[in-house]
Specification:
Low-confidence stretches: none
Number of helices: 8
Order of helices and strands: EHEEEHHHEEEHEEHEHEEEH
Mean pLDDT: 96
CATH superfamily: Zn-dependent exopeptidases
Distance between the termini: 35 Å
Structural class: alpha/beta
CATH architecture: 3-Layer(aba) Sandwich
Pfam families: FGase
InterPro entries: N-FG_amidohydro
Helix content: 25-40%
Number of strands: 13
Largest sheet: 9 strands, mixed
Shape: globular
Oligomer: single chain
Protein name: N-formylglutamate amidohydrolase
Number of domains: 1
Strand order of the largest sheet: 1-2-3-5-4-8-11-9-10
CATH class: Alpha Beta
Strand content: 15-25%
Length: about 280
Amino acid sequence: MEKLPIEAIIRKIKAEEVFHAVSEDYSFTLKIESYAHYVCAAIHDGHQFRKDLWDNCLHTEYDRWYEEDPETKAMVQSHPIVIAARDSRFEYDLNRFPEEAVFETAWGKQLWKQPLPAKETAKSLQKHTNFFRVVEALISKLEDKFGACIVYDMHSYNWQRWDREVPTWNLGTSNIDNDRFGALIESWRLDLESIELPHQIKQTAKINDTFYGNGYFLRFITNTFDHTLVLATEIAKVYCDEYKQIIYPEVVDAVERQLKRLVPKHAQEFYETFIH
C-alpha cells in the first residue's frame, strides 16, 4: 500500500492503473487489484478521530464505536475493488449530505462541549469532498469501461436497541429504481438469506425493514450515474457484542468467506442482465 494525494489517486484511476493506496491524510483506503464491474464499499468502517477534536468531544470512544460499522471492510476485503473509510463518522459522515456531515448532535446527544471552530469543520468537510471526488472518478471509469456498475454499500446496525425482531440483513432500496432493478434486489436478498453463520445465529434478510437506503453515498452515485446500482446492505451486529465492544472474529470470517462467493456471482448476474 502506498500513501497518495487525491490528485494522484484520480490520475491512477483515469489511467486504469492497479494500485492499493491510502489517501495522503489517511482518511480512506482504495484497493484496485483489477478493474471489475463491481465495487465494495465500507464507508462507516473507520474509527480514527482527530486528536484536535478529543478534548472537545462529549462522546466516549465506546459511544463512537457503537454507532460505527466495525469489520464491514473485513467482510469484503477479498474483492478486486474496495473503498473504505478510516475516519470515524463522528468527525464527518460520508453517508450524509455535506451540509449535514459534521454533527452538532449525534443520536440525541450533544457532540461538542463548545461549537466546532470553522477551521475544524472546513478541514473535515474537505475530506468529505475529496472522498467523493475519488468515488466519482472511480464509478465514471467503470461505467465507461463496462457500460454498467454495481456497488455493494456495506453497513451494520445495532439490532439490540430495537424493541421488535429485526432481520440479520436489511436492504435499503427507497432511492434506487425498483422497477428496473427489482429482480436483482430480490436476488441479492435471497443470497444474503442463504449465508450460514456460526452459533446458530438466525438468518433473515428483508427489504426496507429497519433502514431505507437514504444515505448520501447511495444517492450521490445514483443521481450522478445512469447505469450504476448501489445496494445499501446492512448486517445486524450479530458479529459482535455491541454492549461489551467485543468482536466475534469467527462470525466476521464466516460472512467474509461466503460473500467472497456470493458477491461476484450476483455482480455477474447484474452484468449479464444489463449488458448482454
